Amino acid sequence: QVQLVESGGGLVQAGGSLRLSCAASGSSFGARTMAWYRQAPGKQRELVADITYYGTTNYADSVKGRFTISRDNAKNTVYLQMNALKPEDTAVYYCNARRAPPFNWGQGTQVTVSS
User: Fold this and answer.
1) Among 90, 94, 89, which residue's Cα sits nearest to residue 108?
2) Which of 22, 36, 86, 105 has a CA 20 to 30 Å removed from the CA of 99?
3) Please, which pLDDT band fits residue 92 given cuts at 50, 70 and 90?
4) Residues in contact with 74: Cβ distance below 8 Å, sequence separation at least 6, in sequence order
């Protein structure tokens, strides 16, 4: 059973950068398309970006040009490079499979962007 562990979040000023990591243990992602999601207080979880096994990517309009998703299949790890961060990027960030069935959700990693 895949266990997902997100890391790399923190407090950053607007305009700053963070790099998030999501590591799988227990099993591998396999060939599944993986995604980063985020959930801000009082809001529903939303898709941020996804990446296929072969590296094709897709981004939400709100993060295009600022965020980059990547993956290392050998390491069973997915990354999210976040640049030019804005206060509205503040949320808990999670990774999981893009399509059902999802893996068990991890604890997420908090990203807080101050203005």
Assistant:
1) 94
2) 86
3) very high
4) none
Which two three-digit tokens encode residue 107? Answer: 């604890």
Work out the mean pLDDT of the chain and round it to a whole number.
96
Position 101: which residue type?
P
Query: What is the residue whose two structure tokens read 């590296």?
Result: 55
The CA dihedral of 72, 109, 106, 5, to the nearest 10 degrees, is 40
Cis preceding linkage at 101, omega within 30: yes
Q: What is the spatial distance between Cα 51 and Cα 59, in angstroms, rounded to a whole number? A: 9
Can you tell me the distance from the alpha carbon of 86 to that of 96, in angstroms, rounded to the nearest whole number?
23
- Rounded Cα distance between 1 and 65, Å, is 34
Long-range CB contacts (within 8 A, 24+) of 57-62: 62/88
What pLDDT is stored for residue 25 in this prediction?
87
